[in-house]
Amino acid sequence: MENGNASQVRKFASHADFEAALRECLLRATDTLLLFDPDFSVFPLGVTDVDALLRRFLQEGGTMRLALHHGDYIERHYPRFLRLLKDYNHRIECRATGRHLHQLTDSFCIGDRVHIVRRYHSDHLRGEAAFGVPEACEVSLDRFDQIWGESAPTLHPTTTGL
């Protein structure tokens, strides 16, 4: 699959537009995916085509880091993602934030440090997607690194965490 070198930024305000932008980000990513959302309830992690995109990405050597406040929604509603986590636990790492970070309400997916799909607030679908625009990712990359550093492992591939 081709990364696509054309730089572009576009706004979105609907669930369909958010999902289309997210799929495009997943499709363009070849190396790293960094995702943050309070619970990922709006992300289509349980959908067949998104599972296929993530499997392709991971099979081709990509790594994924997912940070969240609560993993309950994923555990209850995304069995495909839990299988993906079990199948690729050496390429996926999930961490939960501490209570002191639960006021964070933004939501984003960064691909290869140059593509981003960002919702301004996790309760709303308004946001923007930027592809091939590294400077559009800078603030969210810093934010992700800070969140990641203050989070603990979660969503283990087995009930024992092994």
Layout: helices, strands, pairs:
Layout: E1 8-12, H1 15-28, E2 32-36, H2 48-59, E3 63-68, H3 72-77, H4 79-87, E4 92-97, E5 107-111, E6 115-119, E7 127-131, H5 134-149, E8 151-153
Parallel strand pairs: 2-3, 3-4
Antiparallel strand pairs: 1-7, 2-5, 4-8, 5-6, 6-7
Describe this structure as you would to a colleague.
This protein is 35% helix and 25% strand. With 162 residues, it is α+β, with helices and mostly antiparallel strands. The protein has a single domain (8-132), classed as Endonuclease, Chain A. An eight-stranded mixed β-sheet has the order 1-7-6-5-2-3-4-8, with helices on both faces. The radius of gyration is 15 Å and the shape is globular. Mean pLDDT is 91; it is low at 1-5.
In short:
The protein contains five helices and eight strands. With 162 residues, the chain is of the alpha+beta class.
Spatial order of the strands in the main sheet? 1-7-6-5-2-3-4-8
Q: Which band does the percent of strand residues land in?
A: 15-25%
What is the level-2 CATH architecture name?
A: 2-Layer Sandwich
The largest β sheet comes out as: 8 strands, mixed
CATH class: Alpha Beta
Residues in helix, %: 25-40%
Number of separate strands: 8
